[in-house]
Amino acid sequence: MSSSASHASPQAHARRSRLVHVTGFLLIAGSLVACSNGGSPGTHSVGGGQPIGAASATGGVLPAAGTTTSGGATTAGGTVSTTGQLTGGTTAATTSNGGTVASIDVTASGGTLSGGGTSAGGGVSGSGGSVTVDAGLGGGGHSGTGGTSSSGGAAGTGGMSTAGESAAIDAGTGSHADASAGNSGGGGTGGNTGGTTRTGGATGTGGTTATGGTTATGGATSTAGCTAVPVTPNATQQARNVLCYLYSQYGNHILSGQEEGGSDLEVNYIFTNTGKYPAIRAFEANSDGAATRCLTYWNAGGLCMFGYHMGAPGTADGYAGSQTKIAGEIDKALTAGSNENTVFNQRLDAIANRMLMVQAGNGVVIYRPFHEAGGTWFWWSMEGGAQYVRLWKYAFDRVINTNGVKNALWLLPYDGSPDASFYPGKEYVDIGGADNYNKAYDYSPMTSIFTAARTIFGTTMPIALHECGPVVDPDQLQSSKTNWVFFSIWTQPYPEQYSTVAELQKVYSSSYVVSRDGVPNLK
Hints:
This protein is of the alpha/beta class. Helix content is 22%, strand content 10%. It is built from 11 helices and 14 strands. The protein has helices at 237-249, 265-274, 290-299, 319-322, 329-333, 339-360, 385-402, 447-457, 474-480, 494-497, 501-509, and strands at residues 130-132, 168-169, 176-177, 220-222, 254-255, 257-259, 280-284, 303-307, 365-367, 408-413, 431-435, 463-468, 487-489, 513-514. Helix 8 (447-457) links the parallel strand 11 and strand 12 (463-468).
């Protein structure tokens, strides 16, 4: 946003759960039989693999949906047979009496629950199935889309953190991006997808946890049916999942977003007044603890976006430096061996390091560098489109090829007058974007800006309102077919003083708007 607009560079369908009963349990002591109802796309491992949304076993592998003999001893095997289908994110969690485990907790995206891997003696789990992220997923993204159950008790679906997960250190702060056991995800703290904490794989009465076993590799997310591919070569699976999800929502729903000011103040204001958290939390990437807070939000079921008021390389970093005009600054920044080039590289590397911390926690960052392209208030845009494109391509190469960032989706962030000369090309951009700040209590959808952006990005690439002041009204968005894929309200005072509480409540209760609890598991 321009300085003249007072910028500091100034959801959803409720998840529906239905009880799916698991039938056909057969206990055969000393032997193991795996049963399945078929291998249709979007199936989950049940027999021994960690189910979606389940808490990881500690000190060994708990064979999810396994059976124990009455009296408390766990059998060497046991057969799990499933007959029902899971549709639209249905969850089943049934425990039988007498010490027999009959607990399955699976969230699917229209997929079929299968017998999955076979539990072997000693608690060894077989490989399971996968969950399909369907590019055609509608309904505000309320159907869960699986998620990764990683080996060794790593985080389960829905952002459920497990004991023993490694912590990322946020550069320059010493703070940890801890994935604290059970604090977030799967309906835990933060209220993400699912609404309640899942306990799939819990032992029956008197049962004991298997030890010495290995965790199945099932429950991974597939992108079958989605043709969108991130511009980053060899992007992480999670980045692919998020991009496919954004494509699935584009034109069908709008994700809610909120810029933070370095704390929880803004997102908590939204939650206090609407009962919902924004689907996207946006950060100033070089603020203390940004990577930590991003991972926390990701593990609670939300998405993250990084922006950065990078100072001109010849001056101090930060907002004031970002508006400093120095003649020939871009040429100096891109000249190898110059002082400006050294500083520019250091600042790019520092932000890349933050994204790598998120990457280490299997998170994704929507990255919008050099925002409000086309404006004349930031140094990166003052010298025109050709120089901006050179800068973008240099940063793209440095972040990806020098630093190894594979979890970023690149958003080209125009100002309110999109200019094609600032567009580096579709091979460098995942998501289009523009921004504008309406006057207080003006909730109009800014259709003309969206239309101008679409003439540059084309009709298929999702386009975001990457910054705004007042919220945009969902009824007006739909009636005008202004199909922003998400909006992001700037930090205070915008949530508090530019939109009424009544309008915020209308937006966050709209079936057209996706809040954090409506984002499917993209892990």
